[in-house]
Amino acid sequence: MRYLIITKRHIMIFAAVFVSFAVLSITSAFALQNKNRLLPIYSVNTNKKVVALSFDAAWGNEDTQDLIDILKKYDIKATFFVVASWVDKYPESVKALHDAGHEIGNHSTTHPHMPKLSTEEMTNEVKTCNEKIKNVTNTEPILFRAPYGDYNNNVIKTLGDLNMYTIQWDVDSRDWMEGHTAEKITQDATKNVQNGSIILFHNAAVNTPAALPNIIENLKSQGYSFVKISDLIIKENYTIDHAGRQQSNEDNNSGSSSSPNNTSNSSEFGSSSN
């Protein structure tokens, strides 16, 4: 009779093979998950020195006219993402923004965490807000920003099915943070800007009106000009890379897409309180 003698060396070899197999399986599963992950637009790959200023309006209305006046002074058009309840409370401000040439985007109806909703609930959130905006501006939004920057595949797909583009940001002014001074807001809003950046601000943030002129002048001195998000993004035949950066397939020959839905490799992105 022959006996199988298992030595310490055999155990170590077996353990190494097992660990390697486990790591490979986990890596493959993670890669497959990321490959199928849908992303919103964080920024746009462009050789033009352009950026987009965006404001989320969900709560107060103290500084809307101040923002309109500052942007008018510099002849800049921005994009404002509004919640339906904000439209209900301040329809005159929505109209004033629209009449001043600014773009009105959809920020949901009740400001929920969208991934927690069913597809039907998401659709109702978006359609209700769209209807309220259209009633005031006679224009239906094509842009959506998820409350809290919170999204998953179903959010992106649902908005794509509604022929809308889901928009994030790659530069956060952090004006929503308590005690954030105008100087600090200016630093955060300008230090990581690149061509095609989308910068996040908030309506009714205490120090944003004080910071905004300095931010605009700082970026202008760097050669940047300002456009609305709908004039910045690529509407068709594009992909989104792992950093959420939208790029034209005509430039990179990386495939094609004809709807706001896009699949991309990605790592997890952080959210902001908005």
Number of strands: 11
- CATH topology name: TIM Barrel
CATH-level-2 architecture: Alpha-Beta Barrel
The average pLDDT is 86
Q: Which H/E pattern describes the elements? A: HEEHEHHEHEHEEHEHEHEEH
Q: What do you see in this structure?
A:
The chain is of the alpha/beta class and 274 residues long. The protein has one domain: Glycoside hydrolase/deacetylase (TIM Barrel, Alpha-Beta Barrel). Helices cover 41% and strands 14% of the residues. The protein is built from 10 helices and 11 strands. The strands form 3 sheets. Strands 2, 3, 4, 7, 8 and 9 form a 6-stranded parallel beta sheet that branches. Helix 6 links the parallel strand 5 and strand 6. Helix 7 runs parallel beside helix 8. The longest helix has 28 residues. The radius of gyration is 23 Å and the shape is globular. The N and C termini lie far apart (74 Å). The C terminus is likely disordered.
Task: For this entry, give a set of tags.
11 strands, TIM Barrel, three-stranded mixed β-sheet, six-stranded parallel β-sheet, 274 residues, single chain, disordered C terminus, alpha/beta
Please write out the topology.
Layout: H1 8-35, E1 43-44, E2 50-57, H2 64-73, E3 79-82, H3 84-89, H4 91-99, E4 103-106, H5 119-137, E5 143-144, H6 153-161, E6 165-166, E7 171-172, H7 182-190, E8 198-202, H8 208-221, E9 225-226, H9 229-232, E10 238-240, E11 245-248, H10 249-252
Parallel strand pairs: 1-11, 2-3, 2-8, 2-9, 3-4, 5-6, 7-8
Antiparallel strand pairs: 10-11
